Amino acid sequence: MDGIAGWAVSIMETLGAPGAGLLIALENLFPPLPSEVILPLAGFAASRGDLSLASALFWTTAGSVIGAVILYWIGAAIGRDRLRAVADRLPLIKLSDIDRTEAWFAKHGGKAVFFGRMIPIFRSLISVPAGVQRMSFGLFLLYTTLGSAIWNTVFVVAGYVLGENWQVVEETVGVYSKGVLAVCAVVAVVFVLYRIRKHYSTRTPTRPGI
Prior knowledge:
Helix content is 81%, strand content 0%. By secondary structure, the protein is mainly alpha-helical. α1 (3-15) packs across α2.
């Protein structure tokens, strides 16, 4: 193995199951590190007897929670006032957008954290607004642990069952990840075009009546 897979295997060979937890904690902080590679590899290592399946599940979930908690406190350090001050300086963003987002998160924050832990990209980012909004830390831990445990179990067990064919998991989830990226890109483009059109339409002077 080479690249990220080879590096991940070397970490797990050196540190065992805690190494898998360390890798997943880093994946939360640096999303380009793909969990769809690390988690099946942990399962593959368990199938070879390098570590137990139970320890792989425990340490990867612990790593997910640790990484999410760090991002939560980063969001808390940024704070609501600082976020609004930055958003107020951004083009195409209005404070009313922030207000609507805050209201939505106050109502659906628990579900957002739980399901967000199972969506590529968002599984890391969702911890930041939870911290900014100072979501109850106990609830944040609960929803993060449950969502992470489900996500990790699916991929670790898949790697355990598939063994040397663990790459099938990466290929399958790769399609899912690309789909999420495509949807995000479309939404972003539509939002920008809408705001640009609205901006220029409000600046267009109306002709005086005849």
